Amino acid sequence: MYNLLKGKRGIIFGALDEHSIAWKTAERVKEEGGEFVLTNAPIAMRMGQIKELAEKTGAEIVPADATNMEDLENLVTQAMEILGGKLDFVLHSIGMSVNVRKGMHYTESNYDWTHKGWDVSALSFHKTMQVLYKKDAMNEWGSIVALTYMAAQRVFPDYNDMADNKAYLESIARSFGYFFGRDKKVRVNTISQSPTPTTAGQGVKGFDGFIAYADKMSPLGNATAMDCANYTISLFSDLTKRVTLQNLFNDGGFSNMGVSDAVMEPFLKQEE
Ligand SMILES: NC(=O)c1ccc[n+]([C@@H]2O[C@H](COP(=O)([O-])OP(=O)(O)OC[C@H]3O[C@@H](n4cnc5c(N)ncnc54)[C@H](O)[C@@H]3O)[C@@H](O)[C@H]2O)c1
């Protein structure tokens, strides 16, 4: 390990179980010398294994529904108290669509569900940053990262309204990132990650086909949750101080591919 985050403090949202991208990130942050508070929605605390991660990493847990401003205010205040000062990094690793969960087709969207999913998956990022900004909770050259998916730019039919939520999330990173950069010298970026077998990922219809296709299309294969954790560490570190307002692809090259030999193969056989 490289001690890249020695002396840095932060908040990690979204570790549900050992498959979660946030879980792997917390383990890597710890290895790199960072200290953090873990948070998740109160309901996820009951279902998840977050206590195990907290014990393993010596972190405290502060529950917060990321759609609730009071919860977020309490979280940020408590995190600064527990960690003994302002924060250097924040990971937003949160996603949920009620339409996806309930198998509602995109063309039939239930708008109450759309609204809920948007609040959880996208607006919560704005809310989190608003609280951090108003409380002046970030140190200069701090770094805020949210996780996203390429369905924000291209069509993946089964990704449903999460595609729209991710487009909104990425836009918030740029819009809020401007003010955070100008006023507080804080970076704000999104990492656009390969399909990854987690609870949220596997909720998408046809996920197995989806992940296999992406793997065959990508020259380096799909990025794992650990790859995402490592990329996030680099963005939290001082090595990427002037990287901001970016949507950064961590996808084995998928996003710039048209077609690969492996994906072409079955079609060539048909021609013979
Ligand atoms: N798994 C993939 O294929 C993939 C690909 C690209 C991007 N992402 C993104 O990565 C992030 C992390 O997801 P993951 O794949 O690790 O799955 P995950 O299911 O392990 O994590 C999602 C987390 O969101 C939390 N959450 C839901 N509602 C919340 C609320 N109201 N308040 C606070 N937290 C809430 C859940 O409790 C859970 O911990 C998400 O933004 C997801 O969209 C995932």
Structural class of the secondary structure composition? alpha/beta
Bound molecules: nicotinamide-adenine-dinucleotide
Helical content, roughly?
A: 40-55%
The structural domain count equals 1
> Which oligomeric state applies?
single chain
CATH architecture: 3-Layer(aba) Sandwich
CATH topology name, in short, is Rossmann fold
Calculate Rg over CA atoms.
18 Å
Short structural summary:
This protein has 272 residues and is of the alpha/beta class.
Q: Any descriptors?
A:
272 residues; alpha/beta; Rossmann fold; seven-stranded parallel β-sheet; globular; binds nicotinamide-adenine-dinucleotide
Describe this structure in words.
- With 272 residues, the protein is an alpha/beta fold.
- The protein has a single domain, classed as Rossmann fold, CATH 3.40.50.
- Helix content is 47%, strand content 15%.
- Helix 1 runs parallel beside helix 3.
- The longest helix is centred in the middle third of the chain and has 24 residues.
- The radius of gyration is 18 Å and the shape is globular.
- The relative contact order is 0.14.
